[in-house]
Design brief:
With about 280 residues, the protein is α/β, with parallel strands linked by helices. The protein folds into 3 domains: about 120 residues, Periplasmic binding protein-like II (D-Maltodextrin-Binding Protein, domain 2, 3-Layer(aba) Sandwich), CATH 3.40.190.10; about 90 residues, 3-Layer(aba) Sandwich (D-Maltodextrin-Binding Protein, domain 2), CATH 3.40.190.10; about 70 residues, Alpha-Beta Plaits (2-Layer Sandwich), CATH 3.30.70.120. The chain has 8 helices and 15 strands. About 25% of the residues lie in helices and about 35% in strands. The structure holds adenosine-5'-triphosphate (ATP) and magnesium ion (MG). Magnesium ion binds next to loops. Its cofactor is Mg(2+). GO terms for molecular function: ATP binding; ATP phosphoribosyltransferase activity; magnesium ion binding. This is ATP phosphoribosyltransferase.
C-alpha cells in the first residue's frame, strides 16, 4: 500500500514541494519530464500535475493527497480536506485598477468589468460586499486586461506587487490571503490515513523547527534567574557551569517572532556570547 501525492509539475510550488518532502526525509527521483515517480525510502508515489488539476484528482481519489495553493482549492470547489498549511507559496488575491483611477472603496467596483482567473472567489467576494459587477474569466496575463480595454479592474495573484506596478496598476483590495496547503481525499483507507499521519508528523516537526531557533549564551551566575526568566524554552532552559567560575552556559529554544525582542533584553540583563543556531527537526 502506497500513499499517492500530487504535486505541481513545474511552476512556483514545484521546488518547495520537493524540498519539503526532502526535509521530511523522503527521497524521490525527480527526473525531468517524468509524470510519476516513487520515493525510495517511504511508501509514497508522486504524481506531477498542473496545479489546477490537483483538487479534482484528490476528490476522485486518483491522488490521496496533494500540495496546492489554497487559492486553487477554493476556486475549484472540490471536496477535499485541507489538513495542513505549509508556509510557502504565500501570496494574495487582490483587486487592482489603473493607477490613474480614483478608488476609495469596494463600491467603486459596482457595475465594472473585472478580469480574473478566479471567477468563483471573485463572485463570492462581490456578493459578500453587495456589489454587482461583470466578471471576465481569462486564464493568463490578466494584468494587461485594463490596458487593452478588456476590463476596468483585475483580480489576480500578487506577491511583491511588482508585476502590477510594471503594468501601471495599483492594488486596491485584498480578496484572499493564500499559501500552499496539504489537501487530502475525504475517503482515505485506514492504511493510507496512517501513512498520512506519519507524513504529517514529519511535516509538523520540520515546520516547528523552521519557526524556532536554538539559543546558547553565557550568563554571570548572579544574573541567571533574570536571564532564565526571559527565555520561554520548551520546558525550562538547560543550565551548565562554565569552566570559568561564576559563569554558566544557558541553552534554550526561541520562537523566531520573539527573537529580536528577547535578544535585546538578554543583552541588557548581562548575557554574553549569544549564539543562535537553526534547528533541523523539532518534536515536542
Ligand atoms: P500550472 O502550470 O501548474 O497550472 P500556474 O502557472 O497555474 O501553474 P504558478 O504561477 O506556478 O501556477 O503558481 C502556482 C501557485 O503559486 C499559485 O496558485 C499560488 O498559490 C502560488 N503563488 C505564490 N506567489 C504567487 C504569485 N506572485 N503569483 C502567482 N502565484 C503565486
Ligand atoms: Mg495553474
Amino acid at each position: 500500500m502506497k500513499l499517492k501525492i500530487a504535486i505541481q509539475k513545474s511552476g512556483r510550488l514545484h521546488d518547495d514541494s520537493i524540498k519539503l518532502l526532502k526535509e521530511c526525509g523522503i527521497d524521490i527521483n525527480n527526473g525531468v519530464n517524468k509524470l510519476k515517480t516513487e520515493a525510495t525510502n517511504f511508501p509514497l508515489e508522486v504524481f506531477f500535475l498542473r496545479d489546477d488539476d490537483i483538487p479534482q484528482y484528490i476528490e476522485d481519489g486518483v491522488a490521496d493527497i496533494g500540495i496546492v495553493g489554497e487559492n486553487v482549492v477554493l476556486e475549484k470547489q472540490k471536496q477535499v480536506n485541507i489538513v495542513q498549511k505549509l508556509g510557502f507559496g504565500k501570496c494574495r488575491l487582490s483587486m487592482a485598477v489603473e493607477k490613474s483611477v480614483d478608488y476609495t472603496s469596494v463600491k467603486d467596483l459596482q457595475n465594472k468589468r473585472i478580469a480574473t482567473s478566479y471567477p468563483v472567489i471573485v463572485e463570492d467576494f462581490l456578493q459578500q460586499n453587495g456589489i454587482t459587477a461583470e466578471i471576465h474569466e481569462i486564464s493568463g496575463s490578466v494584468e494587461i486586461a485594463p490596458g487593452i480595454g478588456l476590463a476596468d479592474a483585475i483580480c489576480d495573484l500578487v506577491s511583491s506587487g511588482s508585476t502590477l506596478f510594471m503594468n501601471g496598476l495599483k492594488e486596491v483590495e485584498t480578496v484572499l490571503k493564500s499559501e500552499a496547503v496539504l489537501a487530502a481525499c475525504h475517503s482515505l483507507k485506514p492504511e493510507q490515513q496512517l501513512l498520512l499521519d506519519k507524513l504529517l508528523f514529519r511535516i509538523q516537526a520540520v515546520r516547528k523547527a523552521k519557526n524556532n531557533k536554538y539559543i546558547l549564551l553565557n550568563a554571570p551566575n548572579d544574573k541567571l534567574n533574570e536571564i532564565i526568566g526571559l527565555l520561554p524554552g520548551m520546558k525550562s532552559p538547560t543550565v551548565l557551569p562554565l569552566a570559568e567560575a561564576g559563569w554558566s552556559s544557558v541553552h534554550s529554544v526561541l520562537n523566531e517572532n520573539d527573537f529580536w525582542d528577547i535578544i535585546e533584553s538578554l543583552k541588557e540583563a548581562g548575557a554574553q556570547g549569544i549564539l543562535v543556531v537553526p534547528i533541523e527537526k523539532m518534536v515536542i
